[in-house]
Amino acid sequence: MALSRSALMKRPPASAPVFKDRILMGHCVSQMEALPEASVDVIFADPPYNLQLGGDLHRPDQSKVDAVDDAWDQFESFQAYDAFTRAWLLAARRVLKPNGTIWVIGSYHNIFRVGASLQDLGYWILNDVVWRKSNPMPNFRGRRFQNAHETMIWASRDQNAKGYTFNYDSMKAANDDVQMRSDWLFPICTGGERLKDKAGQKLHPTQKPEALIARVLLASTKPGDVVLDPFFGTGTTGAVARRLGRHFVGIERDPAYIAAAEQRIAAVERLPEESLLIATGKRAEPRVPFASLIEAGLIAPGARLTDAGRRHVAQVRADGTVAVGGEVASIHRVGAKVQGLSACNGWTFWHVEAEGVLTPIDELRRLVREKMALRGVVS
Amino acid sequence: MALSRSALMKRPPASAPVFKDRILMGHCVSQMEALPEASVDVIFADPPYNLQLGGDLHRPDQSKVDAVDDAWDQFESFQAYDAFTRAWLLAARRVLKPNGTIWVIGSYHNIFRVGASLQDLGYWILNDVVWRKSNPMPNFRGRRFQNAHETMIWASRDQNAKGYTFNYDSMKAANDDVQMRSDWLFPICTGGERLKDKAGQKLHPTQKPEALIARVLLASTKPGDVVLDPFFGTGTTGAVARRLGRHFVGIERDPAYIAAAEQRIAAVERLPEESLLIATGKRAEPRVPFASLIEAGLIAPGARLTDAGRRHVAQVRADGTVAVGGEVASIHRVGAKVQGLSACNGWTFWHVEAEGVLTPIDELRRLVREKMALRGVVS
DNA sequence: AAGTATGTTGAATCAGCCC
DNA sequence: GGGGCTGATTCAACATACT
């Protein structure tokens, strides 16, 4: 057999476009419609905010605030903005893999409409995440609270999609060993990170900080995943994806932005492989049937298991089940039964006694796993 | 002014609308329709969130989470929820004075629909304000980010209403003389503040902390103003309004909640005029994720950490974990591992080397904290 | 009395795999 | 695709009991 199955599968069909690590010029809806169905793992979208600014805004010293007044941010009405939102969210959903997820960032001007459209189209919200800006623009007129945050919505493609990527252990380890919360603190994009034109003016009005996108991708993608950004702008998503060993697809209408993004991304170096590994917890450990402990000779059929308080005793049977009284079932079922609970982790509940010392059977499982790793059974 | 229980229950005569400091029993829409037009200064609304919970949820210790499964939170569809939302927002808008404002609190389950409806009905959003919970419930299954905040929308009755109340200087003074931001940190309502029944069970499943409502009223009302709460529950809004010298109108369907609210409010003493400023409590030391050091550029992915004696070396990964040998985990876990201990403070154990000098990463954490303090984002 | 250990609880859309 | 089994998963406050 000359060609392995995996080799065959890796080759893209001749008809499918090679679209990874490319910027597609054009409107986001038509460009997404041209992409293969179910082909991207994550979408990060920073759509127009539909800012409705009245007149010009001036600082207390009378200098004019450089507002977002680009043509692409103007919509005639909420209805027009909704129609646009639904169109691109629909096209995005087709491109997303069944277990893919989407992130959309916005402010109070547009995020409520985006969130409602997401729900209407069948997406299932997983979290809303607040980007707390450590250095937001002040409210110059003193008529409102300082607008110090933006909102990101993280949603799966379908309500019942349970297999989406969330690097829980990685996030927790990076956050002092407590769960990562839904409010994140980052500075806005300034200084050397902010792209400027030759005149020293900012190239894009709403360039997002790379740190923000980095946490998004580290949380919800694996190395090698494909990340689509339908409002690519100057390519922050592409730059971060490349640095983190993810593939990107960008869609952008403005050739000037595309040129800036290409130059920017080309200068990005991918981090070395070993810096990109993701912390994994117990969930990623290989399964070990309890019977393996018997087969490995670590526990003999007929041996007695007890809980830490020696209140319950179970007898090990040759087939990997255990018995308490007339009850014969798995270590988990029996552990639950004797405690009157609906569930129980038998690995941590049951112990074996040797010379008066109790050892949790989870310790024996660890030994089995070590052996498996040595034999190369487990990659 | 003494409030008797019978006085609280008295319905206002239709001819002379004396409706201040009363709880009206009934459905919020019909009760609001019976109120005079343009008669209240501020509305604070905590509507049903339309949580769509699946099965039971258990904590890791097998205890069952007491879910919000009350009938009033059940809606057949998003469409049904939208119809309900539009109905009460419409009735609320009629009751609101032209320069009045409305606050609505919600979570990602409902807040996007509320926000879109507000905009559709002609309200004008002034801010969205994030309530950051200092002690939120964890995500027990580790499948998402910890849901650590709720969102409040603050809106004026009309786009062109410029005369709404915003106590800018009061807010700024209460916030160490920097503008009050749109993200507020408060603990959830527990302990002595949480109303309990005779059996010691919580009286209401979603009682809000008084401190949160107090900041809302101190920001957007003047003493003597009338505050309407169409989902009065156990009367947090009424209690805070009375304490702060504002009038309230409550609407509530459940007689048991009304009885509890009456008793609660009757026990509240109005604060003396001069003491109506909020006290701000800052946490001792803000938590800094190790990942923040990477995001701040103080440590690069791939950098090497060593202990003070240079006996151990760990490599920093892009996701905020570190690695020694095959072990990938937090700075704390890896520090414990290499020393053969069960625990370790990674902040003081690990160092970075620059020009031959070892610096504990705790020093870098200190720098991050200083920056945060300078920007006023600690609290 | 002061500190330590243990138990309880909160607006929650909270599994993955094999057969 | 459905059914069944395995076995992984929590943070900050507050309350209570005990040393």
UniProtKB/TrEMBL annotation, chains A, B:
Enzyme class: transferase
Domain RAMA: 279-372
Any one Gene Ontology BP term: DNA replication
Record's keyword terms, sorted: DNA replication, DNA-binding, Methyltransferase, S-adenosyl-L-methionine, Transferase
One of the record's GO molecular function terms: N-methyltransferase activity
Highest taxon, organism lineage: Bacteria
One Pfam family linked to the record: RAMA
Catalyses which reaction(s): a 2'-deoxyadenosine in DNA + S-adenosyl-L-methionine = an N(6)-methyl-2'-deoxyadenosine in DNA + S-adenosyl-L-homocysteine + H(+)
Entry-linked InterPro entries: DNA_methylase_N4/N6, DNA_methylase_N6_adenine_CS, RAMA, RM_Methyltransferase, SAM-dependent_MTases_sf
GO CC list: cytoplasm
The protein's name: Methyltransferase
DNA methylase N-4/N-6 domain boundaries: 40-262
EC number(s) on file: 2.1.1.-
Family statement drawn from the similarity comment of this UniProt entry: Belongs to the N(4)/N(6)-methyltransferase family.
